[in-house]
Amino acid sequence: MALDQILQALIDKECSKAHSHAVILRVQSGDGRVDFKGSAGEARPDTRFPIASVAKMFTATLIMQLVEKGQIELDQTVQSILTDVDLSGLHVVKGVDYGAVLTVRQLLHQTSGLADYYESDLANDLKLGKDRSYDLGEVLRMTQALAPQTAPGSGRSYYSDTNFQLLGAVIEAATGQSLDQALQTRICAPLGLTQTAVLTGTDVGLPVYHKDQLLKIPRILTSMGPDGGIISTLDEMMIFLRAFMQNQLFKPENAAQMRQWNRLFFPLHYGYGLMRIKLPRWMTLLRATPELIGHSGASGSFAYYAPEPDIYVIGTFNQTDAPRRPIGFMFKVLSFVAKHGGPR
Q1: H helices within 39-115, ranges in order?
Q2: Could you give the 3-state DSSP secondary structure of residue 196?
Q3: If pLDDT is split at 50, 70 and 90, which confidence band does 339 have?
Q4: Which residues contact 140 (CB under 8 A, 6 or more apart)?
Q5: Given Cys at both, which of 194, 228, 232, 244 links 224, Cβ 3.0 to 4.6 Å?
Q6: What is the overall mean pLDDT for the chain?
């Protein structure tokens, strides 16, 4: 059986599982010999879909570009950039207020220790399909009402969407553009992307589910912006992912800096807007598994590069009840490619 048929059968099998309504997958090798695009269920291979937290890679790219142009500095305080936003009282740990001294680097590396606004009642609203809009001010209020994760600079990354909401505001303040304008002029236009944008309005592309409940949440999705509110396609995500990993969007030395990995939560490590997945041998019957670098999203979205086999894997399940599901799925894909991915 040809690799294309094997991968399509894998997609079909995944889509036949409980609470699965759509699966789309794009796989490409660095040399182009493997090039697959498939779908099952409610989706087509060219369907636009919300990429969820994979959007953080776009936000990180914009931040690093601004650093390279000297418009901001990684160790600059966020408060010095967001002069119209009061960050005092946002992050108080053991009586010490760290809000005004948080840096761009700490937000990008998820080492600020800020609470994750998504873990407020917003997470439950999303799962119940209760739609509502919010802005940065509301994000900061939701964050302040939650217990902080730790003081900044602990040496470990703690995942927080609040970090990237603030980074989105930094981008807008530094460029004088909206987040979407910055995205279009600095990433999409240079790469020729026409279907990738910050979500606006009610068209969110492929419908998102929580188990079997259709989530009609366009206002939540459009409010996520820099931490999870971008829409794209498999083809355009592949162009972006390749450009990102091949250092076409920023200097190689900055690409290396972005891969300073901190422990996040098993089996993930975090860099600068990047996740790393490397399974230990005790989980894989002592067999080595590829390292994956990229990002995942709460909707089952994923965009990763496996350097050792030189394979790019992108897709989504568009369901929120099992966000870690893509990890096992990607390793199955890579296993099949390794076995059957010879010259086309």
Answers
A1: 55-68, 78-81, 104-108
A2: coil
A3: confident
A4: 85, 87, 90, 117, 162
A5: 228
A6: 93
Q: How far apart are CA 5 and CA 39, in angstroms?
A: 12
My answer on whether 204 and 157 are in the same domain is no
DSSP class of residue 321?
S
100: domain CATH number?
3.40.710.10
What is the residue-wise DSSP string for 200-231?
A: -SS--SSPEEETTEEE--HHHHHHHHHHH-EE
Whose structure tokens read 């207020």? 97
**Encoding tokens for residue 103?**
């840096």
Question: Residue 64: how many CA atoms within 13 Å on its side-chain side?
Answer: 27
Structurally, the chain folds into a number of domains equal to 2
Read off the tokens for 302.
């994923």
Residue where one domain finishes, among candidates 191, 208, 243: 191
Tell which of 170, 191, 212 closes a domain.
191
Cβ neighbors of 123 (< 8 A, separation 6 or more) are none
- C-alpha distances (whole Å) from 293 to each of 29, 51, 149, 192 are 15, 16, 25, 23
Q: Is 52 exposed, middle or buried (0-12, 13-18, 19+ CB in 10 A)?
A: buried
- How do residues 78-130 score in pLDDT, each as one tens digit? 999 999 999 999 999 999 999 999 999 999 999 999 999 999 988 788 777 78
